[in-house]
């Protein structure tokens, strides 16, 4: 009986899932029908609008051309009518003179004939008929204003719906991820001269493969791309992957998005562990400021009691690598006395990692490096075998030193505004760089027996940490060049 009930429960569960699946499908179909109706009405209205616009253009052209014909006809009519009026008057005058001449010739009187003949001669000389041009000032030919619409008619008859652009395909093998930049490359199935631009969308994710139905991060849009590739620069890789999709657009319509492609964006990301910090350090996100008052007690209690800290948030949990874990300090209080120290919340026990720290060069003291989890609450960075660091001293005179196990080496290099820290755990390499120029400042060569943690110290100053950074290419190259050098490896 129990087995039958269990079997029936499984069948019921399966049926319920299938019903939910069918219900979702039915809802999707109904939504598609509504979308179809709306989209059909939209494109119909747009088509009517385009034809109305075309009619308006044709009507305007017709009106302009008709006006040109009317103006041409009026001008020529005026010229010809003026000539006609002048010719009629000249003809009338000429006929009168002719009649007078005939009468004089037929007259039998001889006394006045000589004077009459002279008067007729003078009148003929001054007659308008002899000063009139007998060439028309305007032509009656209007053929130069005829229009051949055969080509335009053929073009109009060739009007058809603009084809939807083909779907691009992202070429994973040509995409590049390095130096916190991503170059995405795509192609079209065949050349399309009507493509105006592309739209690229991307979003961060902690999942490999196609996007999930529900993602924690929204799509970010890049519009107006004219080429078949695009580079995103200055990224912070605080998730394990980024997903991309692209679509092509012509002047009127956009095509379908390409199949999403997910690229791995491996980088070292961490937060600062407030619970480890000295009480005189004011820790806000990735910024730290020395506070001689020790902070307000209520602020400290608030920080201790908050439940949405980075250590416990879902986003933080999703970022955890299988080889990295939080750096809880069970059974230990925060750093105290003159150890103005704060640790990261994530340890390093494998791979090559890189981060940067920007600090106030006017700080009385500042240090950055790594430490073992066994670092004591009274231990200052670089003054025990459990920590390695670069230390800035701003007392009587400014100095920059590399410190480990209470040994120090003065560094002969300009003090930068920010320092890049590189760790190669397997090789036991800890290097410090000028973050802007990537100039190598110092390298520790050792053998890490335990996981290490990013560590920071400041007194009478401030600093901010930048994570989510890949190991820069120039740092990789520098490490290869200096792999056989031991000039910077005396403090081990």
TrEMBL record:
Name this protein carries in UniProt: Fibronectin type III and SPRY domain-containing protein 1
Pfam families recorded: fn3, SPRY
CDD domains, A to Z: FN3
Chain ranges of the B30.2/SPRY domain: 268-474
Keywords for this protein: Cell cycle, Cell division, Coiled coil, Cytoplasm, Cytoskeleton, Microtubule, Mitosis, Nucleus
Membrane spanning residue stretches: none
Organism from which the protein derives: Takifugu rubripes (Japanese pufferfish)
Gene: fsd1
Main location as per UniProt: other
Subcellular localization: Cleavage furrow; Cytoplasm, Cytoskeleton, Microtubule organizing center, Centrosome; Nucleus
Coiled-coil parts of chain: 26-64
Protein task: May be involved in microtubule organization and stabilization.
Boundaries of every Fibronectin type-III domain copy: 164-268
């Amino acid at each position: 009986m129990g087995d039958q009930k269990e079997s029936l429960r499984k069948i019921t569960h399966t049926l319920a899932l299938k019903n939910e699946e069918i219900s979702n499908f039915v809802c999707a179909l109904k939504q598609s029908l509504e979308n179809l109706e709306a989209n059909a009405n939209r494109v119909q209205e747009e088509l009517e609008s385009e034809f109305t616009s075309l009619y308006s253009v044709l009507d305007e052209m017709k009106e302009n051309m008709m006006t040109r014909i009317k103006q041409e006809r009026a001008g020529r009519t005026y010229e010809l009518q003026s000539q006609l009026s002048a010719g009629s008057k000249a003809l009338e005058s000429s006929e009168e003179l002719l009649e007078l001449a005939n009468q004089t010739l037929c007259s039998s009187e001889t006394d006045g004939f000589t004077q009459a003949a002279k008067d007729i001669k003078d009148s003929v000389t001054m007659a308008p008929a002899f000063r009139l041009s007998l060439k028309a000032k305007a032509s009656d030919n209007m053929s130069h204003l005829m229009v051949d619409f055969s080509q335009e008619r053929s073009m109009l008859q060739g009007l058809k719906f603009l084809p939807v652009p083909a779907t691009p395909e992202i070429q994973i093998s040509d995409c590049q991820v390095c130096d916190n930049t991503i170059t995405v490359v795509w192609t079209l199935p065949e050349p399309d001269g009507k493509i105006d631009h592309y739209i690229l969308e991307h979003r961060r994710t902690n999942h490999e493969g196609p996007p999930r139905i529900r993602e924690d991060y929204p799509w970010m849009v890049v519009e107006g791309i004219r080429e078949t590739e695009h580079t995103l620069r200055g990224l912070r890789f605080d998730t394990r992957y980024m997903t991309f999709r692209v679509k092509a657009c012509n002047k009127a319509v956009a095509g379908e998005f390409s199949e999403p492609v997910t690229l791995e964006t491996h980088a070292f990301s961490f937060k600062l562990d407030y619970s480890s910090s000295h009480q005189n350090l004011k820790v806000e996100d990735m910024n730290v400021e020395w506070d001689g008052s020790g902070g307000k007690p209520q602020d400290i209690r608030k920080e201790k009691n908050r439940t949405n800290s980075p250590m416990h948030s879902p986003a933080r949990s999703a970022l955890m690598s299988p080889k990295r874990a939080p750096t809880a300090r069970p059974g230990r209080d925060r750093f105290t006395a003159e150890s103005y120290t704060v640790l990261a919340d994530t340890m390093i026990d494998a791979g090559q990692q890189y981060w940067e720290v920007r600090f106030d060069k006017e700080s009385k003291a500042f240090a950055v490096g790594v430490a073992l989890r066994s670092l004591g609450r009274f231990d200052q960075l670089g003054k025990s075998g459990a920590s390695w660091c670069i230390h800035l001293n701003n007392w009587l005179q400014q100095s920059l030193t590399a410190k480990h196990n209470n040994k120090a080496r003065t560094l002969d290099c300009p003090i930068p505004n920010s320092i890049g820290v590189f760790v190669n755990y397997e090789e036991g390499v800890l290097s410090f760089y000028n973050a802007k120029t990537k100039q190598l400042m110092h390298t520790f060569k050792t053998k890490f027996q335990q996981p290490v943690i990013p560590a920071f110290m400041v007194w009478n100053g401030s600093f901010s940490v930048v994570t989510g950074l890949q190991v820069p290419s120039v740092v990789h190259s520098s490490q290869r060049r200096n792999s056989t050098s031991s000039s910077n490896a005396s403090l081990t």
